[in-house]
Design brief:
Layout (H helix, E strand, L loop, with lengths): L4 E7 L5 H11 L1 E7 L6 E6 H8 L9 E5 L2 E12 L6 E8 L6 E10 L5 H4 L3 E5 L3 E6 L8 E4 L8 E3 L10 E2 H4 L7 E7 L6 H14 L1
Parallel strand pairs: 1-4, 2-6, 7-10
Antiparallel strand pairs: 1-3, 2-3, 4-5, 5-6, 7-9, 8-13, 9-12, 11-13
Length: 213
C-alpha cells in the first residue's frame, strides 16, 4: 500500500447545479460527496488546485485515502470523478467510506515491465499489444495494491498473457475470474508488425507469382 494520501475537504449544505457552478466559478472549489458505511451521505467541497495536484499521483486512484473533513478524518476510496469534456476542470468527485473488515472492489492500474527486453519483440520482430490498462480487484482495504506488475520479458511472438496468468498479491482476487465462463480475457500479447512475415511466407509468395506468370 502507498504512503498516506490526505484530501482536505469542507462540509457544504447547498446543493443543485446552480450551487455547484457557483462553487466552481466563484470559490475555485470542486463539489464532492462521501457516502457508504453506517453514515449518511455528506456533501463536500475541495479546493480545486489541491485536488488537481493530488490527482497527479497515480496511487490516489487505487489507494485508501484519508479524507479530512473539518478536522475529522475518514478512510475512503475515490469512487468516481467527473471531468469537463473539453477543459481540464474537475466537475465532481465521489468518495466511498471503507471499513477495514469489509472487502472493496477497486480498479487497479497495470504496470508493464521489460517491454524493451521482450523476446517476441527483440527476437521475433513483433510489437507489444496491450489489451488492458487496469483490472478490477476485490480485497480488504489493507491488501489493496497500488498496481499489478505484468512482466512481458518471456512473452514470444503470438503469445498472450491472460488474466489468470497475472501474479496478484495475497488476499487479492480478480473480479472477472470470479464470474467464470469466458472472462479470462487477454491482458497483453506480442503480435506481428504490419507488413512483417517470415522468409518462408515471402518465398511462397514469390513462387506463386512466378507460377502465375
Amino acid at each position: 500500500m502507498s504512503n498516506e494520501i490526505v484530501i482536505v475537504a469542507e462540509k457544504r449544505s447547498v446543493q443543485g447545479k446552480g450551487a455547484s457552478r457557483r462553487l466552481r466559478r466563484e470559490e475555485s472549489k470542486v463539489p464532492a460527496i462521501v457516502y457508504g458505511g453506517n453514515k449518511e451521505p455528506q456533501l463536500l467541497s475541495i479546493i480545486a488546485k489541491d485536488l488537481k495536484k493530488a490527482l497527479e499521483n497515480e496511487a490516489l486512484y487505487s489507494s485508501i485515502l484519508t479524507l479530512k473533513i473539518d478536522g475529522e478524518t475518514e478512510s475512503v476510496i475515490l469512487k468516481d470523478l467527473q471531468r469537463h469534456p473539453f477543459r481540464i476542470d474537475i466537475l465532481h468527485a465521489d468518495f466511498m467510506r471503507v471499513s477495514q473488515d469489509q472487502p472493496i472492489n477497486v480498479h487497479v492500474p497495470l504496470h508493464f515491465v521489460n517491454e524493451d527486453n521482450c523476446k517476441g519483440v527483440k527476437l521475433g520482430g513483433g510489437m507489444i499489444e496491450r489489451h488492458m490498462t487496469e483490472v478490477e480487484v476485490t480485497c480488504l482495504p489493507r491488501d489493496l495494491p497500488e498496481f499489478i506488475e505484468v512482466d512481458v520479458a518471456d512473452l514470444e511472438l503470438g503469445q498472450l498473457i491472460h488474466l489468470s496468468n497475472l501474479q496478484v498479491p495475497a488476499g487479492v482476487t480478480l473480479v472477472a475470474l470470479q464470474q467464470g465462463g469466458d472472462h479470462d480475457l487477454p491482458v497483453v500479447g506480442v503480435s506481428k508488425t504490419r507488413g512483417s512475415g517470415s522468409s518462408e511466407e515471402a518465398e511462397s509468395t514469390e513462387e506463386g507469382e512466378e507460377s502465375a506468370e
